[in-house]
Structure to design on (466 residues):
């Protein structure tokens, strides 16, 4: 590993550690004006039950039910079921669905259920037992899942709101809904941008349209889950280690596969086909080892939102946005101010001329792969904070990543950022007029319209030098 590359990755890991650590502090603070909660899958949850897990001798899941004014609600019924096979302390395996427990909240709104062992559990709230005039903020989210480690406690959060059918955005004005969706879109766009900028840099320096880039996104989330939930590292440390590991693996991948193909003179179309096959291979390797279930990061799975005017944002989303912006700015600084960044831009403009000028093209390309893989891993971690970890998630956002890169201009890193933000906002805002299932269509429609007007993309050039 080159000293400068190692330093860059170490700085990336340190920033993740520091900024996500800030998120832990923010998450622990009460959220003024936040909607009522029914527990949360987090030791950082904004509830009276968010105590130190080390004090819990038995495995349990717990929570607290409050109304939108944060007043406790008694006699609310909840059902707990194991979503996967679990093993109790005696070694007996309890098949999925065979452990069930029903509990009612106490006068102070709290509830707790002892569990037979660590594993994945589903918690369902009986909305019919909520007081008249109160429902879930999202009526479709009456069941939540939580991964509970042995001899630890998990907390499960559901947000409540005024109205029998819940709150959400249904009872809000169109302007308030548009503002909320715009903020959500910007946060999502920043996540896409982290993945897109690496994809754009790789395309710019090698000409490779890498359809396996989404698997780097997935790898970041899976590696973090491994180090946090299986190895037992604190989440922020696991995230930092995952970024380092994925960055190194990105460099190894380039050396072992793509660099060899370039030396053999393999064409970009053939390499594109190889990337499709390689991506399929990696996806099913992930499925084999990880399984098909979506799992949550226990430390950040549920948090109370902070009401900022008409917009509700969770602390983890705000910290994730800060992390994303920090790394996008760091990437801009690297491209504009450092020797290797300027070299990568020179290679993107004209590889032959860059080589003739004394630039070690293969060395710079390998650095680009390391940086791009690290950023993709970070994108996967941030995406999983709200959506959970699964083997398919990188492929799910791959098309949107390509849309951001294409919209901004192929091979232009800054264009990828701009394009990704537009795609993220359009995806969310389009749900004002189309069903959520069709929200990606609106973003792709905007992509088509803009490319009809400006085929090279927003920041792209009509002709590439060389």
């Amino acid at each position: 590993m080159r000293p400068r590359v190692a330093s860059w990755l170490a700085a990336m890991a340190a920033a993740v550690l520091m900024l996500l650590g800030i998120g832990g502090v923010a998450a622990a603070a009460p959220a003024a004006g936040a909607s009522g909660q029914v527990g949360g899958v987090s030791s950082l949850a904004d509830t009276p039950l968010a105590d130190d897990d080390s004090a819990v001798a038995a495995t349990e899941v717990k929570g607290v039910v409050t109304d939108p004014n944060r007043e406790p609600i008694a006699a609310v019924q909840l059902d707990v079921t194991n979503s996967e096979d679990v093993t109790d302390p005696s070694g007996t395996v309890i098949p999925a669905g065979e452990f069930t427990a029903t509990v009612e909240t106490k006068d102070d709104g709290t509830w707790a259920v002892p569990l037979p062992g660590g594993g994945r559990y589903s918690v369902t709230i009986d909305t019919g037992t909520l007081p008249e005039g109160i429902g879930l903020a999202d009526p479709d989210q009456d069941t939540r899942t939580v991964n509970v480690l042995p001899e630890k406690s998990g907390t499960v959060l559901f947000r409540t709101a005024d109205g029998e059918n819940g709150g959400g955005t249904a009872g809000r004005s169109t302007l308030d809904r548009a503002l909320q969706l715009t903020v959500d879109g910007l946060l999502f766009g920043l996540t896409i941008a982290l993945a897109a900028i690496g994809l754009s840099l790789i395309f710019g320096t090698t000409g490779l349209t890498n359809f396996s880039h989404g698997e780097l996104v997935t790898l970041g989330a899976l590696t973090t889950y491994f180090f946090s939930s299986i190895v037992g590292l604190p989440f922020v440390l696991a995230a930092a280690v995952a970024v380092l590991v994925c960055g190194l693996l990105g460099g190894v991948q380039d050396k072992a596969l793509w660099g060899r193909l370039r030396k053999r003179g393999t064409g970009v179309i053939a390499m594109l086909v190889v990337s499709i096959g390689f991506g399929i291979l990696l996806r099913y390797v992930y499925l084999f080892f990880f399984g098909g279930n979506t799992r949550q990061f226990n430390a950040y799975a549920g948090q109370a939102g902070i009401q900022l005017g008409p917009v509700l944002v969770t602390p983890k989303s705000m910290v994730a946005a800060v992390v994303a912006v920090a790394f996008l700015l760091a990437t801009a600084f690297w491209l504009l101010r450092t020797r290797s960044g300027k070299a990568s831009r020179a290679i993107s403009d004209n590889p032959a001329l860059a080589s003739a000028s004394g630039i070690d093209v293969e060395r710079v390309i390998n650095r680009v792969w390391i940086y791009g893989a690290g950023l993709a891993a970070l994108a996967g971690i941030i995406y999983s904070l709200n959506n959970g970890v699964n083997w398919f998630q990188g492929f799910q956002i791959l098309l949107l990543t390509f849309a951001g890169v294409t919209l901004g201009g192929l091979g232009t890193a800054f264009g990828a950022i701009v394009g990704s933000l537009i795609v993220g906002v359009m995806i969310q805002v389009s749900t004002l007029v189309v069903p959520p299932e069709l929200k990606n269509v609106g973003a792709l429609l905007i992509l088509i319209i803009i490319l009809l007007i400006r085929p090279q993309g927003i920041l792209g050039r009509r002709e590439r030098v060389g």
